[in-house]
Design a protein that fits this description.
The protein has 196 residues and is an alpha+beta fold. It has helices spanning 38-53, 138-151, 156-159, 162-167, 169-184, and strands spanning 58-60, 70-73, 83-104, 107-125, 131-137. The chain has a single domain, classed as Alpha-Beta Complex (Peptide Deformylase), CATH 3.90.45.
């Protein structure tokens, strides 16, 4: 998820290229993490670097082309305020439903008013594989729900009202045409993350 007013922070190196709509990996349900090791920890740190460099406040593994159940969140957009959820499941959503303008790093420059409940209770694992349960509220709950959507193959465009789809029609079509050009052109494919 991206913060509408957030400016990209250019001091951190970009760890991965972002996967943009309509790449097929974004539509696939992510698979559980089974190994909790140094490789997973390094992957999570690279996700944080990508999110921060891109001006985001959350990022899910499918957004860097990896079909695994990992998401990172930082309400402030800073690493020291961030946390990772491995294999999360939303157990419960509660509280008033509010509208908020959401952006998404896989939909650059596109924003839509999305209704979401104010709280969510999540069961997940930490980087060591320890299981925990936690309730999030406010903006953090919104970020968690947005990133969790990515693990389920649900995208910002699916949450848009008809008015927002119309407002963003040209930008969405440009993303589709960009994808079609990349598919037609030379170069390796496969949707794997590309380190810079």
């Amino acid at each position: 998820m991206s913060e509408p007013q957030a400016a990209p922070q250019t001091e951190a190196p970009l760890a991965f290229d972002l996967t943009l709509f309509p790449e097929p990996v974004l539509r696939k349900k992510a698979e559980p993490v089974t190994r909790f090791d140094a490789e997973l920890a390094a992957f999570v740190e690279a996700m944080f670097a990508t999110m921060i460099h891109s001006g985001g406040v959350g990022l899910a593994a499918p957004q860097v082309g990896v079909k695994t159940r990992v998401l990172v969140v930082s309400e402030s957009g800073r690493r020291e305020d961030g946390f990772a959820l491995i294999n999360p499941t939303i157990l419960e959503r509660s509280g008033p439903t509010t509208l908020y303008e959401e952006g998404c790093l896989s939909f650059p420059g596109i924003y839509a008013e999305v209704p979401r409940p104010d709280r969510c209770k999540v069961v997940a694992q930490d980087l060591s594989g320890n299981r925990f349960e936690k309730e999030y509220s406010g903006f953090v709950a919104r970020i968690v729900q947005h990133e969790y959507d990515h693990l389920e193959g649900v995208l910002l465009v699916d949450r848009m009202s008809p008015a927002d789809k119309l407002k963003n029609k040209v930008a969405l079509q440009e993303l589709v045409e960009r994808f079609q050009r990349l598919q037609a052109g030379p170069g390796p494919g496969g949707g794997l993350p590309r380190r810079r």
